[in-house]
UniProtKB/TrEMBL annotation:
It comes from the Bacteria. This is GNAT family N-acetyltransferase. Residues 39-187 form the N-acetyltransferase domain. Keywords: Acyltransferase, Transferase. Gene3D superfamilies: 3.40.630.30. InterPro entries: Acyl_CoA_acyltransferase (IPR016181), Bact_Acetyltransf (IPR050832), GNAT_dom (IPR000182), Streptothricin_AcTrfase (IPR008125). Coiled coil: none annotated.
Length: 195
């Protein structure tokens, strides 16, 4: 299901991942700048969350192109790639989660392509995929050190559904990294009586 969105003078196109997925992953920079850790405050805009400022550093979660190979063209999952002016610059992996929501397992945009609507377009494709499956909404997880992602999800209508302060402690017992679970609900109430 191709999706084309005009963004300024650039064109963002999204289509099902193809054989070029591994080369695109291996040739992309998915790192981001970390300047602070946020304290999630429910019902408060991300821009108003209290911050613990730190010495700035680049963070990159390693992405293995084989990790989601079974998701491609499967009945309950899919991998989509985004192209900006014909170049592969982003991807989203979406599946049906155990709780019935669409689950964005991964969303990443090549650093030089950020700010062109690529991530927003990929979120829209994941939302469209989830709606076509008849799911009640979409969920995803990010961290309190990725404030750009948190602001994006909030702008796209996602709300914080939960926070897990222990999720990353097994990797680093001293980490200040906290998991934030975001939800976009398609209906006003869980029973789906309003849309």
């Amino acid at each position: 299901m191709p999706s084309t969105v005009n963004v300024g003078k650039s064109r963002v196109q999204v289509r099902v991942a193809d054989a070029g997925f591994a080369a695109y992953i291996n040739g992309s920079d998915f790192s981001f700048q970390v300047d602070a850790y946020a304290e999630v405050a429910h019902g408060v805009a991300v821009t108003d969350w209290p911050l613990c400022r730190i010495a700035s550093y680049r963070k990159c979660y390693g992405i293995d192109p084989e990790e989601f190979s079974s998701y491609r063209n499967a009945p309950d999952s899919e991998v989509f790639m985004a192209y900006l002016d014909g170049q592969a610059v982003g991807h989203v992996v979406v599946s049906t989660n155990w709780n019935g929501y669409g689950h964005i397992d991964e969303l990443a945009v090549h650093a030089p392509a950020r700010g062109h609507g690529v991530a927003r377009t990929l979120l829209e494709v994941a939302q469209f995929w989830s709606r076509r499956k008849g799911l009640p909404g979409v969920m995803l997880e990010t961290q309190n050190n990725n404030l750009g992602a948190c602001r994006l999800y909030e702008r796209c209508g996602y709300v914080v559904g939960g926070v897990d302060r222990l999720r990353y402690r097994g990797i680093d017992p001293q980490t200040r990294e906290v998991a934030i679970f975001w939800y976009l609900l398609f209906a006003e109430d869980p029973a789906g009586n309003a849309s």
